[in-house]
C-alpha cells in the first residue's frame, strides 16, 4: 500500500507510522529521516538542505520533494511506503501526485489522525525530558516520574523543552492549520482520506488504523 499519514503535532504520527509500516511490511519514510540521511551522507541534496538550515531558513519544497522522490525510487519502496511529514503542503501534494503518475501508480489512502486541540496541548506541554538522557521521557499526567522533576532511570533533572511550552505548541498548531491541514481537503476531493481518532492507547489507535486500511484494501 501507498499511504500518507497526516495529523497535528502530538497526534502520535511517528509512533503510529512505525507500527503501521511494520504491520504492512512497507518502509516508513519520514521527512526528518530524509534530511538526516542526506546530510550525514553528504549528498548534494543534503548539502543544499544544510545550507538553508544553517542560515536559519526553511528548506525549499523543491529540495524536500527531490529527497522524497529519491527515497521512493529505492527497491524497498517499489511495492509501497508510508509517508510521514511529507507532503507538508498542497504544493508538495501536487508534486507527489505527479511523481506517482509518472510511475503509473497512485496513493491508496491518506490516514488522518484526529486529535482535539486541547488534547494536543496537554500531550506536548506535559512532556518532561531527562537532561542526562533525552531517551528518558515522562509526562506529568500520563507517565509521571516517581519523584517530581527527577528521572526514574538515572535521577537526572527533568525539564520542559522550549518547543513544548503551551505558547509554542499553539503556534505550531497554527502553522499546521495554515500550511498542512489544507492537504486533507485536497485529498478528500480525491476520495482518499480516512479519518481515525488518535485518542486512547497506542495499540488501540493502531488497531483502528489497520482495520480502516484493510477496508480500503478490500474496496
What's the β-strand tally?
8
Kindly report how far apart the N and C termini lie.
Answer: 13 Å
Mean pLDDT: 94
Read across the widest sheet, the strand sequence of neighbours is: 2-3-1-4-8
What's the helix count?
9
- The helicity comes to 40-55%
Rounded radius of gyration (Å): 18 Å
Principal-axis shape: globular
Please give a structural write-up:
The protein is an alpha/beta fold and 219 residues long. It has helices at 13-24, 31-41, 44-54, 61-72, 90-102, 117-125, 166-180, 182-188, 202-218; strands at residues 2-6, 28-30, 81-84, 109-114, 127-130, 137-139, 158-159, 193-197. The strands form 2 sheets. A 5-stranded parallel β-sheet has the order 2-3-1-4-8, sandwiched between helices. A 3-stranded antiparallel β-sheet has the order 6-5-7. Helix 1 crosses helix 9 (202-218) and helix 2 crosses helix 3. The protein is globular.
Briefly say what this structure is:
The chain is an alpha/beta fold and 219 residues long. The chain has helices at 13-24, 31-41, 44-54, 61-72, 90-102, 117-125, 166-180, 182-188, 202-218; strands at 2-6, 28-30, 81-84, 109-114, 127-130, 137-139, 158-159, 193-197.
Provide the fold topology.
Blueprint: E1 2-6, H1 13-24, E2 28-30, H2 31-41, H3 44-54, H4 61-72, E3 81-84, H5 90-102, E4 109-114, H6 117-125, E5 127-130, E6 137-139, E7 158-159, H7 166-180, H8 182-188, E8 193-197, H9 202-218
Descriptive tags:
single chain, globular, 219 residues, 8 strands, 5-stranded parallel β-sheet
Amino acid at each position: 500500500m501507498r499511504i500518507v499519514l497526516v495529523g497535528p503535532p502530538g497526534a502520535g504520527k511517528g509512533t503510529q507510522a512505525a507500527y503501521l509500516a511494520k504491520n504492512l511490511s512497507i518502509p516508513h519514510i519520514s521527512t526528518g529521516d530524509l534530511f538526516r540521511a542526506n546530510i550525514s551522507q553528504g549528498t548534494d541534496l543534503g548539502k543544499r538542505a544544510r545550507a538553508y538550515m544553517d542560515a536559519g531558513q526553511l528548506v525549499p519544497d523543491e529540495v524536500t520533494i527531490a529527497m522524497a522522490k529519491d527515497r521512493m525510487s529505492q527497491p524497498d519502496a517499489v511495492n509501497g511506503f508510508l509517508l510521514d511529514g511529507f507532503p507538508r503542503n498542497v504544493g508538495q501534494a501536487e508534486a507527489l501526485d505527479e511523481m506517482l503518475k509518472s510511475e503509473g501508480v497512485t496513493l491508496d489512502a491518506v490516514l488522518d489522525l484526529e486529535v482535539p486541540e486541547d488534547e494536543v496541548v496537554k500531550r506536548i506541554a506535559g512532556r518532561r525530558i531527562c537532561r542526562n538522557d533525552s531517551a528518558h521521557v515522562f509526562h506529568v499526567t500520563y507517565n509521571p516520574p516517581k519523584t517530581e522533576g527527577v528521572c526514574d532511570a538515572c535521577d537526572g533533572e527533568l525539564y520542559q523543552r522550549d518547543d513544548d511550552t503551551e505558547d509554542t505548541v499553539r503556534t505550531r498548531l497554527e502553522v499546521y492549520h495554515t500550511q498542512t491541514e489544507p492537504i486533507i481537503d485536497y485529498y478528500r476531493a480525491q476520495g482518499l482520506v480516512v479519518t481515525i481518532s488518535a485518542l486512547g492507547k497506542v495499540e488501540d489507535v493502531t488497531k483502528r488504523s489497520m482495520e480502516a486500511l484493510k477496508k480500503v484494501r478490500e474496496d
